[in-house]
Amino acid sequence: MDEYEAIVYDLDGTLVRLDVDWDAVHAAVVERLDEHGVDVGDRNLWDILDVAAERGVKDVVEETIAAFEHEGAKTSRRLPLADELPLAVPVAVCSLNCEAACRVALERHDLDGHVDAVVGRDTVARHKPNPEPLLYAIESVGAHPERTLFVGDSDSDREAA
Fold first, then answer.
1. Where would a tag sit more exposed on the chain, N or C end, judged by fewer CB atoms within 10 A?
2. Peptide bond preceding 131: is omega within 30 degrees of 0, i.e. cis?
3. CA distances from 56 to 31, 48, 73 (A)
4. Domain spans of the chain?
5. Given a cut of 70, is residue 95 above it in pLDDT?
6. pLDDT of 37-66, one tens digit each?
7. CB neighbour list of residue 107: distance below 8 Å, 6 or more residues apart
8. What's the pLDDT score for residue 87?
9. Model confidence over 16-42: pLDDT tens digits?
10. For every residue of the chain, which 3-state class applies, written as one string?
11. What is the pTM of this model?
12. Is the distance from CB of 33 to CB of 61 less than 8 angstroms?
């Protein structure tokens, strides 16, 4: 790891698996937005979050998603990659999950003491795949982007990197 100043991990699907039924989350979000007169059509959950922000109801969506994530973090499963922590370089987490749920999952699996920074969907103004949260995580541990390894498991992770 000498070639890297830091390592940033995605959380869900990389270090742990949150016990979240994303179809149920989507349905709950659509229902809540319908109550506010917002039609989101067939958009995915993360696009819905952007539409909700444009329509001034982002908090409604955030609260709904975060409630599911928080519960899922409490019953999350530790994944094998988590066993590589601690590392000799600073470690950060950059996730599409809300920061509070990330912290719950890290604490549940005794990983919180091995992670120097946690950046969730709600930590900064934009969420993955925008690179802002990843760059913020890197900055938070005092590293340079070109000397940081990002480990993720999704298209949004790849695009953010």
1. N
2. no
3. 16, 12, 28
4. 6-17+78-160, 22-73
5. yes
6. 999 999 999 899 989 999 999 999 999 999
7. none
8. 87
9. 999 999 999 999 999 999 999 999 999
10. CCCCCEEEECCECCCEECCCCHHHHHHHHHHHHHHCCCCCCCCCHHHHHHHHHHCCCHHHHHHHHHHHHHHHHHCCEECHHHHHCCCCCCEEEECCCCHHHHHHHHHHCCCHHHCCEEECCCCCCCCCCCCHHHHHHHHHCCCCHHHEEEECCCHHHHHHC
11. 0.93
12. yes
Residue recorded with tokens 């969420």: 127
Token couple for 54: 């444009």
* 6-17+78-160 fold: Rossmann fold (3.40.50)
